[in-house]
Amino acid sequence: MINKLFRKKSVDQILQDSREGTGLAKVLGVRDLVSLGIAAIVGAGIFSTIGLASFEGGPAISLLFVFVAFACVFTALAYAQFASTVPVSGSAYTYAYVAFGELFAWIIGWALVLEYAVSNTVVAISWSQYFVSMLEGFGIFLPKWLTMAPGYAIDAHLKFVEQGLSALNVADKAGLEAYVTAPRIADIPIIFDFPAGLVTLLVTWLVYIGIKESQRASNIMVMIKVGIIVLVILGGIFYIKPENWTPFAPNGVRGVMGSVAAVFFAFIGFDSISTTAEECKNPQRDLPRAMIICLIICTIMYVAITLVLTGMVNYTDLNVKDPLAFVFKYVGFDHMAGIVSVTSVIAITSALLVYQLAQPRIWMTMSRDGLLSKRFARVHPKYRTPSYATIITGIVVAIPSLFFKMDFFVDLTSVGTFFAFILVCAGVLYMDHAGLSAKSKFKVPYINGKYLIGAGFLLAWILLFNYGEGTIAEWRRLSLVEIVEHKSLVLIFWLSWILLAVLGFRYRFSLLPVVGILINLYLMSELGASNWIIFILWLVIGLVLYFAYGFKHSKLNKTTA
């Protein structure tokens, strides 16, 4: 039983399975891949969650973007090595199948649903907010009950009842209007986010009819949104007031790190390039290049735009859903604000497009391995896309986007993504140890971590004792029960570092994948415990599905029976 749970697929076996009649069209070059990567990364993060992050961390949030990008670079290198070794559509799911076996592969595949399908719900809701704002700019006003999740309206109604009208902000008043004006069935208000559901269905249709059409649409939208971001940076420079950058970190390190989920969400997507491996002309050469190039471009844009936003407006005013448009309204440049609103709709659409491309291809690969129904592996005879999986993805994204609040999904998405990133970095260590790296066309640069991993641990503790008085004092105030309740993830981080130092000394681990593991694990420790509880419940559901269907129907189960 145990052996079957951790049965692995060889690289040659995976490549052979991918060649057996999938029929996907090989049309993507390195420019197309870079475009898809930028389309995925530069979406709801830069046009929406960047405002909340700046509000919580101040101008110093620009440094958090650099830190998170630093983590993503190590992860991108690991993804690039796997992509050049196993150029198929399964992304981290396939990589885990090679390195850790079937059970871990299923867990990663199930976690990737959070990264792509669930995060796309956030993107769809963000798109709706900008779309409604754009329509109002043209004098078109949709009924409020058609433009938001019911939770927003119910919260606004309760706040009105408890505190009165004077306590409501602009968003609360819109929610109250939705609650009051909504049609009712048995006195239950009918409220949903119609634009979010509609755009999901339209993008799903585009993804369904072909990768070539999707790629062309993505290229056009990427050119538009990169152009507008450059315009915002160049135009905003003239409105920067240096005094807005003081204090640089008003809420300290805790305020900056409290925005980890929002900032990391802005980077989610660079790994989605790997899901298009079977549609690349030369995946082993182009996938690694595209991942690194798009990550560098996006990091530069993120840091620049954050400094411009916090320089134009005091960080305390940036707790808005459309920060790029807001800052130009704030300085009286309404025409620019209107342009940003229109192009934001285009920009977020491109991110939605890439995520809707990624999820079906992962399900297709899982189905090809027997872990999901054969229907998920169907390829349309005319459009040459995973047709059934694409339709199911559209439904899975559209329905929650109609009824759920955006902030519910942001942290949850990050937990699943961190989990996948850590296993991919760890997978490179396994490849090095097992000799599979010899088959890699691209390799993570090897730096012997035998002594460096342990030395880094000692250095971190020296710095903590010399400069972390506040952190040490906080830990001393906590009881053992409180440490277990609130600091368990931090303890796991330090224990994992010790374990990696011991194993690194024994097996001469490559330093860069280890750094990727530690940074992602540290960022995970900054997320709330409630998100971890939901994530664990999600994994439990996934394991039930695996043992109910996947374990029995796995192709490896049939070959080893």
From TrEMBL:
Domain Cationic amino acid transporter C-terminal: from-to ranges: 511-554
Keyword terms, alphabetized: Membrane, Transmembrane, Transmembrane helix, Transport
Record-annotated membrane-spanning stretches: 33-55, 61-80, 92-113, 188-208, 220-240, 252-270, 290-315, 335-358, 385-403, 409-430, 451-468, 488-504, 509-525, 531-549
Location, primary (coarse class): membrane
Membrane-related topology note: Multi-pass membrane protein
Gene3D superfamilies named in the record: Amino acid/polyamine transporter I
Superkingdom, natural source: Bacteria
Record Pfam families: AA_permease_2 (PF13520), AA_permease_C (PF13906)
Signal peptide segment: none
Subcellular compartments: Membrane
PANTHER family assigned to the protein according to its UniProt record, in alphabetical order: CATIONIC AMINO ACID TRANSPORTER 4, INNER MEMBRANE TRANSPORTER YGJI-RELATED
Record's protein name: Cationic amino acid transporter C-terminal domain-containing protein
Organism (species): Sphingobacterium griseoflavum
